[in-house]
Specification:
heterotrimer; A mainly alpha (285); B alpha/beta (319); C alpha/beta (320); A: 285 residues; mainly alpha; C: 320 residues; alpha/beta; eight-stranded mixed β-sheet; four-stranded antiparallel β-sheet
Chain lengths: 285, 319, 320
């Protein structure tokens, strides 16, 4: 009968509009990120067009920047970077949230107190200030550094939420039954509690992914991003820096801005849709 | 087989755990081999906490629990697992006892993984089969299903079958039939009676006096964490001595006679228990004695196998 | 006649179809009668209670007529029922004690509730105070928050509220289930007081606990799988039931004085049918020891003796 449950889930999943729309948008951009770079011969930072800023044309689909760089190329490579940061940063944040949340929620007592204190401290650290200090010391920053930084500062809310869920689940009778069957604590967490929270953990990851993407774009935009390579946020940074807004070079900043908004928005909408699928009470009858 | 001596449970509550909440205070009783003892109490009596302490799901903060002479609080790790081979529990809510995302049979697989890893699949299957049949379930009907596809009665029996897969000698049954339909309760109760004749000892935790009477040899009446009366079921029911027991007997709704016109003192918001008798606040003034508010009355024997925690002056002789 | 229901059918909407939760209920409650409604899970008693007072989705009205004091109750029309709720018909719902807004003082909540029904708490205050005395609640509870009261106290408070506007019929849905034995007795007896003092004309007490009904109800109606099985005076139902289900049910209840060593009580083998696609005819057919081929038709709920209704083909007169 497990088939019925799974197919019931898929039935709702495919019928849910928010899920379909959100997922489609994200997948679309993902495809562009993967395939896009192969569609263009130009490197993103290469000064390809001696004519400087030119609007979109047949040769340069998204036009060129003030330096004659292919905007589409930048866009495609930038999307890759954005997705990478989202996945890596979001992944790190989720992992930290899971480990800390489960430990605090299941053990309780002193462990819980200690982890709570840690969570609270990280929560109130002004990440921007810390990042400014770090960037002052590091001459070269890469995407991986950025992801790690975002991941290490974004986990507190996830840890809190997971801790709360674990708390409520661990006092359920089936955990007692597992203890009476001789199972050890860590085994109980992984085989009894975590599976019950799978849907929740998925939602957490999606939110972290979206949050990391947005975070990265923001940091890039204000110049605290990677010093090498290109990303959507960096595109917008350069665009504003070089007066694209004033000079009406819209094709430089509109595609990245729209893409970020669309991706992050789509992720949040997917989240809501998934929540409806998992939680029957939220479904529209 | 099982012996509780002065067992207490205190929880720390309030900010920084300043105050103490005593769920169980100084409880002493025992359960012999092949005996069914009912632990009777209303909400807040501590009966579930005692069950959980026996099962080591909750720590014991005072006194000791002895199982076949061994102090249960010393058991850890491997020894604890061996303990669970002989002592098991079944809880009140069948739908909460099963992890909802897995099939119901998983509880058998869990036992196999931890206790019988070397047993071959075919042998295990026939063991499970025999166990299910002995609790009155038809294996093809109940195997391979999710908890929400089975009824409460079937789920509770499943749990008993699980306990029988081990070498259970002692079963803690905490309100196991209160969530079942009336017409199915008696079947599970009869099952317990059959198991008892097979040598199983059972601690039957309940608030329902008629169920306790049906199935148990002896009973322990709890009020707010303390034992107020205990003894053989017949003596307790037909000659209750403690004011609380008498109140219970008078107020339980029966199908053979109407309620007596007995004035019942209702429970107001919980008053902190002082050092005196736990029932002092609700006891009728005519029964209160000078010492009742100051000192806890000890359990005194008013008859063979009949003890009451009440002022000795009220119980010179029995009846 | 205080309440009369004719062929009431209310189904429960689900994704997989309609669950026939209440399928053809016809019964009367006379003035001053306290009728107990008993049955196991899925018998339809809670559906019945909700249908009479608040028929909202997923409940769906199919057919049937309900009249209260001669006036038709527009149960299918939520808006029109507004005028009847609390004033003519009222319900103390299951888990009522958890239904009170924890952030509102009880007095304030009462005032708001009464105002929504067009009554003024100030006018009703003396009567409210009298009733609080009756249920042994201090007047000070009106100034308290729900969390300051015990379970029994909250239950009594909700009882007072539900009956404050003197409804003709008060429905009490499993109000004693979550209470201690001593509070159960007090609450059940208070219900009878309400009727004796004519705060309410008649009452429907819904519970799975037959022994409580034996203590306080005048008549008992037994339901099974959405259909009515039997209705008679309490004494008759407990002492000399006629429907096979009732007989088996009564004999499966443990009582003080009955020991397993002496008397082996028996349950009813099998389980109630699922109501998404119920079996044709009498729904107890599969578990009944005296079922025969006529049972494939739904037996009528008819009077087999004075004030004793049974739905069984085995009854003389059922074939008529």
């Amino acid at each position: 009968m497990k088939k019925r449950k799974r197919s019931e889930f898929l039935f709702f999943a495919f019928r849910n509009n928010k899920l379909r729309v959100g997922l489609s948008i994200v997948l679309f951009f993902l495809v562009v990120a993967v395939v896009g770079p192969f569609l263009t011969d130009n490197e993103p930072l290469e000064y390809a067009n001696p004519g400087g800023a030119e609007p979109p044309s047949a040769e340069y689909w998204f036009g060129t920047t003030s330096f004659g760089q292919d905007v589409f190329s930048q866009f495609a490579y930038g999307l890759r970077a954005t997705f990478l940061v989202g996945a890596l940063g979001g992944g790190i944040a989720t992992l930290l949230g899971v480990v800390i949340g489960f430990s605090a929620g299941y053990r309780g007592g002193l462990v819980d107190e200690a982890l709570n204190m840690l969570t609270n401290i990280v929560l109130v650290i002004p990440t921007l200030a810390v990042l400014l200090i770090i960037s002052a010391y590091l001459e070269v920053r890469g995407i991986v550094m950025e992801s790690v930084f975002i991941g290490c500062t974004a986990w507190p809310w996830a840890a809190r939420a997971i801790r709360a869920q674990t708390f409520s689940l661990r006092s359920r009778d089936f955990v007692d039954l597992a203890k009476l069957s001789g199972k050890r604590s860590w085994k109980i967490i992984f085989t009894e509690i975590a599976p019950n929270m799978m849907s929740y953990l998925l939602l957490v990851f999606i939110l972290q992914f979206g949050g990391a993407t947005l975070n990265a774009a923001t940091l890039d935009f204000i110049g605290l991003g990677p010093t090498t390579g290109i990303s959507l946020g960096l595109m917008m940074n350069y665009a504003v820096l070089w007066g694209a807004l004033l000079l009406d070079i819209w094709w430089w900043f509109v595609p990245p801005g729209l893409a970020i908004t669309a991706i992050v928005g789509a992720l949040y909408v997917t989240n809501v849709g998934l929540d409806e699928v998992f939680n029957p009470k939220l479904r529209e009858m | 087989m099982l012996k509780l001596e002065g067992v207490s449970k205190a929880y720390r509550v309030g900010t920084f755990g300043g105050k103490e909440l005593h769920a169980v205070r100084d409880v002493t009783f025992d359960v012999g081999d092949g005996e069914v003892v009912s632990l009777i109490g209303e909400s807040g009596s501590g009966k579930t906490t005692i069950g959980k302490m026996i099962l080591k799901l909750v720590s014991i903060t005072g006194g000791s629990v002895f199982f076949n002479g061994v102090d249960v609080s010393t058991l850890e790790g491997g020894a604890l697992k061996e303990y669970y081979r002989t002592v098991q529990g079944v809880f009140q809510d069948p739908f909460s006892t099963y992890n909802p995302i897995f099939k119901a049979d998983r509880i058998f697989a869990m036992v196999r993984d931890e206790f019988y890893p070397e047993v071959k699949t075919a042998e295990w299957a026939s063991k499970v089969d025999a166990s299910l049949r002995s609790v009155g379930l038809n294996p093809p009907d109940v195997l391979g299903k999710f908890p929400h596809q089975l009824s409460g009665g079937q789920l509770q029996r499943f749990l008993i079958a699980r306990a029988l897969l081990l070498d259970t000698q002692f079963l803690v049954a905490d309100e196991i039939i209160s969530m079942l339909d009336a017409s199915r309760r008696i079947d599970v109760l009869n099952l317990l009676a059959d198991l008892k004749s097979g040598g199983l000892s059972i601690l039957f935790i309940t608030h329902d006096l008629s169920l306790a009477y049906y199935i148990s040899d002896r009973a322990v009446i709890l009020y707010r964490g303390r034992v107020v009366e205990m003894g053989s079921t017949d003596k307790l029911y037909y000659n209750p001595q403690h004011p609380y027991t008498r109140m219970l007997m008078a107020t339980v709704p029966r199908l053979d006679k109407k309620w007596e016109d007995v004035r019942v003192e209702l429970r107001a918001q919980e008053v902190e228990l002082g050092s005196g008798c736990c029932y002092y606040e609700r006891c009728s003034p005519s029964l209160r004695r000078a010492g009742c508010a100051l000192e806890r009355p000890p359990l005194i024997e008013v008859d063979q196998d009949h003890l009451v925690a009440c002022s000795p002056e009220l119980h010179i002789g029995s009846g | 006649m205080s309440l009369r229901a004719e062929n009431l059918r209310v189904y429960y909407q689900t994704l997989r179809g309609d669950v026939k939760a209440l399928d053809g209920a016809t019964f009367d409650i006379a003035d001053g009668e306290i009728m107990g409604v008993a049955g196991e899970s899925g018998c339809g008693k809670t559906t019945l209670a909700h249908s009479l007072v608040r028929l909202t989705p997923p409940l769906r009205y199919i057919e049937g007529r309900v009249t209260l004091d001669g006036e038709e109750l527009p149960i299918a029309d939520m808006k029109r029922m507004d005028g009847f709720r609390f004033r003519k018909i009222s319900i103390v719902p299951q888990y009522a004690m958890n239904a009170m807004n924890p952030t509102r003082k009880i007095g304030k909540m009462t005032g708001e509730l009464l105002a929504s029904k067009g009554a003024d708490i100030r006018e009703l205050m003396p009567e409210l105070r009298r009733r609080l005395d009756l249920v042994e609640l201090a007047h000070a509870v009106l100034d308290m928050y729900p969390i300051e009261l015990s379970g029994g106290m909250k239950q009594r408070m909700v009882m007072v509220l539900s009956a404050l506007l003197n409804p003709s019929l008060l429905i009490a849905d499993e109000i004693t289930s979550a209470l201690d034995v001593s509070t159960q007795k007090a609450v059940a007896e208070m219900l009878v007081e309400f009727r004796d003092r004519q705060f309410v004309k008649s009452m429907m007490i819904i519970t799975h606990d037959l022994s409580i009904l034996y203590q306080v109800a005048d008549t008992i109606m037994i339901m099974y799988a959405g259909q009515l099985a039997e209705k008679a005076s309490t004494k008759t139902i407990i002492g000399s039931p006629r429907h096979p289900y009732t007989k088996l049910l009564i004999s499966s209840l443990p009582q003080v004085g009955v020991k397993v060593a002496d008397v082996r009580l028996k349950g009813i083998p099998g389980t109630p049918p699922q109501l998404l696609d119920p079996p044709a005819g009498c729904r107890f057919r599969d578990r009944c020891s005296v079922a025969f081929d006529k049972c494939l038709e739904v037996p009528p709920f008819i009077e087999v003796a004075r004030d004793h209704m049974v739905a069984c083909w085995k009854e003389p007169g059922a074939d008529a």
